[in-house]
Amino acid sequence: MSASLEVQPLSGVAVITLKNPPVNALAVSLLHDLERVLREAQAHRAVRGIVIKGDRGKFSGGFDITAIRAAQSAQGGKGVIDGSSLLTAAVEQSSKPIVAAIEGLALGGGLELAMSCHARLSAPGAMLGLPELNLGVIPGFGGTQRLPRLIGLQTAIKMILSSKPIRAEMAQPLGLVDRIVPRAELLTEATELALELAASGQWKRTLARTDKIEPAEQAQMIVGFARAQTQKKAPAGVEHPLLCLDAILEGAVNGGEAGLRKEAEVFERVLTSDTAKSLVHVFFAQRATAKVGGVSDRGLKPRAMRRVAVVGGGLMGSGIATSCIQAGIEVLMKEINPKFLEAGIARVRANLFSKVKKGRMTPNAFEATMKRLKGTLDYSRFKHVDMVIEAAVEAIPLKQKIFKELCDACSPTCILATNTSTINIDLVSKLIPDARDRVCGLHYFSPAHVMPLLEIVRTEATSPQVLLDSLAFAKRTKKVPVVVGNCTGFAVNRVFFPYGQTAMMLLDMGVDPYAIDKAIGPGKGFGMPMGPLRLNDLVGMATTAHVGKQFVENFPERSYANGIVPSMVEAKRLGETTKMGFYKYGKGRKAEPDPEGIAPFLQASKAAARLPAVSSLSPQGIQEAIFFPVVNESARVLAEGVVERAADLDIATVLSMGFPAHKGGIIKWADTVGARRIVDGLEAWQARVPAQHKGFFEPCALLKQAAARGIAIADAGAVSQLSTKSKM
Questions:
Q1: Which of 29, 41, 133, 138 could cross-link 244 (Cys pair, CB 3.0–4.6 Å)?
Q2: Which of 35, 92, 132, 644 is flagged as catalytic?
């Protein structure tokens, strides 16, 4: 990790190369090194101009996020370098012109470095952006001040608030890039430009520019409009986008220096916020899921999954097939008759063609991708596949029959995976005891070609090689894998089974159904994509009833069954598919409350349940009633070692159920609330319900332990798993 300096003797240009693979992240030590070599170049008598570039075809992916995490852990958030002052003093105020030669990417601090230079050249296709808001912070190296001065206030605000990068071809007409040149000529062109600027004796310092930024009165109007729009969209408690606008406005009205001071003030404030800590946690959690003890640390090498067979062409099977062929994997889809096979292939075609319609795939790429999909009605070609993913209906005898047939038809090294969402994997492989080491679960979430999470379900017999192969397969198909244990519901569905059941209990206590969804859903609610009742309508009442039955049978002591969903199924009020459920649906799937339509079902269930009435419950009260049991089940999952670490459960709940990323995932959020408060809340609800339902709210041992010791649930889970492993 370094910033190297090479002075070209003939031209008199100093070339500084940022070196920190893989993306030349601006680690604190690299920034100090950059400052050192810049001073050397400026002091060197033979140097007339300077070019800054990144090593191995990448300018810089931004500031090192590990330094942000370290600063968040330090007292008062201290420890992040004052990059803004460094770039202003060492780069922008340089006595010699500096040109940024951008390749690959210039993101976050990388783009802020480039903007502090006096000119910017880019190779074609480079990505430029300021994604800091995705981490709960704001651009802290001068980005809130320099970007508006280069491309105008309105465009800069849109770019910063969206956190989306743009290509160099779009950046150049905006003014963010001065010129686009072929990659092979980039360094030569940058060198020549540096010499031209040196010869002219005049170069523009970005912070002093006023030609693109709007006058103060107009700036206030632009920022005011952006603030109003942001307030409408921002989840409750998320303030960093609004504070970012404060910094932008300060600079627009009172000048760049004042803006930099405001930016530094805001950055320091948001750095240690719960939102920033949660989003940084999610960032690292997502990148750690492939590290699995006893699997990724054994020195094994993953085998390539070049050919995959999918058994079943329904919604899940076709989605899985779509995901595979998009990743360049050949897929063989098996169905039981020509009609079903034709329908399955048509679903894959429709999945892909939606990308064409949105401009995300060319017609030629569409046809080339579809050629990777073949159909079959038998197993004759299965001997050539590397992996089979069974996606048949959730019936144990059928799955057992399929796996027996697969064992006979496939090679002895072929991975046999099931996409079941609830069935014990050992039951699926019951008839093939000699092949259990190559059996696992690959639980996709619907729609499989869109949802990013893939639960890889391991049994006691699943070999490390099969798990490693599955992790590599997930990465190739652009999924985030989480290895989970073999239990009812695995990880996500298991920890979330109380989510819907608590909602039903609240209905039986007389709580307004639409108040529940409002408290849990987006906007000013908890922040889930939708409330539990709206989710029931989306998933379908029949599916809800089927899955709910599995949990009631497996966890009877802590499950709640009521009559609302079964009675709606009986009445053919199945949700979106019948345009009636807890809501009624018109054109465009728009959900409208239907209090009169659901009143008979609620009244009948309430009368049968005989639970104590709850006259009123605040939104926070609803949120705690819904999520504290989810935390409780999550703690059980940690104690049982179903997941490798608490962070795996966090990222799984974010990527599957849409748990708000700014809350960090279910365990991270729970630790923000505190185990003591959660235990007290569960026990308070326990006291309100009859004896037969007290088990639903009974705090588990690990949660009680965390509360008693005053430690984080994540830490209690880590201790519990360490203790379990030491006894094995």
A1: 138
A2: 132
* Cis, peptide link before residue 447, omega less than 30° from 0: yes
Q: How far is CA 271 from CA 38, 249, 712, in A?
A: 28, 20, 21
**Cβ distance 28 to 59 under 8 Å?**
no
pTM recorded for the entire structure: 0.93
Q: Which of 35, 112, 624, 644 is catalytic?
A: 112
Residue ranges with strand state E in 590-675: 591-593
- Res 89: pLDDT: 87
Q: What is the mean pLDDT of each run of 10 residues along the chain (728 residues)?
A: 91 96 94 95 95 97 93 69 83 95 97 97 98 96 97 97 97 97 97 96 92 93 96 91 97 96 95 96 96 94 97 96 98 97 97 95 96 97 97 93 96 96 92 96 95 97 98 97 95 95 96 96 93 94 88 92 93 94 90 96 95 91 97 96 96 97 97 97 96 96 97 89 56
Q: Which amino acid is at 36?
A: R
Q: Which residues contact 553 (CB under 8 A, 6 or more apart)?
A: none
The letter for the amino acid at 462 is T
Give the list of residues 6+ apart from residue 449 with CB closer than 8 angstroms, or none. 319, 320, 322, 323, 326, 351
Q: Are 649 and 446 in contact (CB under 8 A)?
A: no
Helices and strands (H, E) in the chain, number of each type: 31, 19
Domains, the chain, ordered by start: 3-272 (3.90.226.10), 307-486 (3.40.50.720), 492-726 (1.10.1040.50)
User: For this structure, is 455 an active site residue?
Assistant: no
Beta strand pairing call for 49-54 and 583-585 = unpaired
Active site residue 112: yes
